[in-house]
Amino acid sequence: MTRDQSGTWEMESNHNFEGYMKALDIDFATRKIALSLTQTKIIDQNGDNFKTKTNSTFRNYNVDFTVGVEFDEYTKGLDNRHVKTLVTWEGDVLVCVQKGEKKNHGWRQWVEGDKLHLELTCGDQVCHQVFKRK
Asked: Whole-structure pTM over 0.90, yes or no?
């Protein structure tokens, strides 16, 4: 594994995304639209500074962060929540904890070969997405 996550990544699999969205209380219509989409992630990494864009034909989401620095995040276009977000390294894995109204909310992201893995968690639901380097 490597800490370098820079690049353009295209989604190739998305397991239990609906369960994850249900745990976030995302409405039925939005879930059905989101399940039909393919996402592209664009990550610009400079050491511990990240600029990320997640693009689809339905919604786009951008977030910039520095590893180890807590920040206020508004997840507009996703689940529309205000959370306190902290991203840290555990080895070569980025680990994000989001504190707000939902318990056990966050994600883990890592690279293996030419694949970017993203594990999204909310409550007892875990979604595993895999992206291939473009």
From this structure: yes
